[in-house]
Write a structure and sequence with these properties.
213 residues; 31% helix; 9-stranded mixed beta sheet; single chain
């Protein structure tokens, strides 16, 4: 990453009721609270119910939001590829619509990438939210930090939390985004990591828990 690089945050939403909207609201609030504020937010509504759009538009005064709608759901990979084509940033950061970021997430991850300019795919540590309590996820902070450690383990296990990732956009374009093949259903991110490794892209992980799953 370079100082002048820009960031797009991609949020793909499949909301069917008020409960899902409340999770989305919590996710958007975590973007409002970011200590690094210079990013655009691209929101893809993937066949959502009627109230979700009005929820998102309420944040247009506090976030740089670009809102797009897809009337027919065709799978998460299709929604993500649709959103990627509408992102203008040099880097794409992801936030799942039912998860949250720690307030310093973008700032810490951006600085880590500035200090590690050879990395194309950057994740962070994560928390799990269980019955209202935030607990460490299954990976220790010192696990799967370096490119070599990540690549060694990836064939056996997806050791990267997708929602924590920040990825160089030209890398995603080179890989043509996420596979829509049904054999990758439910593991589109893991399949993307493995294709990226085969193509020679570099991985790394910030040894801090910055994502709440």
């Amino acid at each position: 990453m370079q100082e002048s690089d820009t960031i797009s945050v991609l949020v793909c939403v499949r909301s069917r009721d008020h409960e899902h909207d409340m999770l989305l609201q919590r996710a958007l609030e975590s973007l409002v609270k970011q200590t690094y504020p210079n990013f655009e937010t691209v929101v893809v509504l993937d066949e959502c119910w009627e109230d979700t759009k009005s929820l998102v538009t309420r944040y247009e005064s506090v976030l740089d939001i670009r809102l797009f709608e897809r009337p027919h759901k065709q799978g998460l990979a299709v929604a993500k590829n649709f959103g990627l084509q509408r992102c203008s940033g040099d880097w794409i950061a992801y936030l799942d619509a039912d998860d949250q970021w720690m307030e310093c997430k973008l700032q810490v991850q951006r600085q880590w990438l500035l200090d590690n300019p050879d990395v194309d795919f950057c994740g962070t540590g994560a928390w799990d939210l269980l019955d209202g309590t935030v607990v460490p996820n299954c990976f220790a902070l010192n696990q799967y930090i370096t490119h070599d450690d990540i690549v060694k383990r990836l064939p056996q296990e997806n050791v990267l939390c997708h929602g924590s990732m920040m990825i160089r956009r030209i890398a995603l374009e080179s890989l043509k985004g996420y596979s829509t093949d049904r054999s990758c259903l439910g593991r589109e991110d893991w399949a993307l990591w493995q294709r990226a490794v085969a193509a020679g892209f570099r991985f790394g992980k910030v040894p801090e828990r910055l994502y709440i799953y």
